[in-house]
Amino acid sequence: MNLEVNSLTELNSAAKALFNFSGEEKVFIFEGEMGAGKTTFIKAICEEMGVEDVVNSPTFSIVNEYAAAGSTIYHFDFYRIKNIREAYDIGYEEYFYSGNICLIEWPERVAEILPERYIKVEIKVLSPEKRAFNFSKNYL
């Protein structure tokens, strides 16, 4: 599924479209260059899910946990990991296979441990305000 977002005010609509597309899937990976808007889009997703906590990038902690309407959302940022061992050390399996929503930034750094099923969100910068989104279902 492809869509374009022309401003930040349209991100919540894009988040709704992602949930309509994803069905029952719980793991989402986000790809895009630095500054493409991965964390900003994740903030919109969390807002749509009813998260009231401050949502920010877990760059240094690797994972943040947010409460949302009776469920939990895990937000990962693997940008700064030096090796896959760090993902093992945080107990990634307990998060990825918890049945809760997992939002994963920089998934290419942990590609070998990603679940078999996930939704891929690709974000491309078209202009300072405009982004192109591509959502795809990946089943290995």
How does this model look, in words?
The protein has 140 residues and is an alpha/beta fold. The chain has a domain at 25-113: P-loop containing nucleotide triphosphate hydrolases (Rossmann fold, 3-Layer(aba) Sandwich). The chain is 24% helix and 32% strand. It is built from four helices and seven strands; from the N terminus they run βαβαββααβββ. The chain has helices spanning 11-22, 38-48, 85-89, 92-96, and strands at 2-5, 27-31, 63-68, 71-77, 101-105, 117-125, 131-139. The protein has a seven-stranded mixed beta sheet with strand order 1-7-6-2-5-4-3, covered by helices on one side. Helix 1 (11-22) packs across helix 2 (38-48). The longest helix is centred in the first third of the chain and has 12 residues, at 11-22. The two termini are 19 Å apart. The relative contact order is 0.25. One of its GO terms (cellular component) is cytoplasm. Keywords: ATP-binding, Cytoplasm, Magnesium, Metal-binding, Nucleotide-binding, tRNA processing. It is found in: Cytoplasm. Belongs to the TsaE family. GO terms for molecular function: ATP binding; metal ion binding.
> Would you identify the CATH architecture of the domain at 25-113?
3-Layer(aba) Sandwich
N→C terminal distance: 19 Å
User: With helices defined by DSSP (H or I, 4 residues minimum), what is the helix count?
Assistant: 4
**Class from secondary-structure proportions:** alpha/beta
Helix content: 10-25%
Strand arrangement in the largest pleated sheet: 1-7-6-2-5-4-3
Unreliable spans: none
Biggest beta-sheet profile: 7 strands, mixed
Tally the beta strands. 7
> What's the gyration radius in Å?
14 Å
CATH class designation of the domain at 25-113: Alpha Beta
The general outline is globular
Mean pLDDT equals 93
How do the helices and strands follow one another from N- to C-terminus?
A: EHEHEEHHEEE
CATH superfamily of the domain at 25-113: P-loop containing nucleotide triphosphate hydrolases
Main location: cytoplasm
Family: Belongs to the TsaE family.
GO molecular function, one term: ATP binding
Subcellular location: Cytoplasm
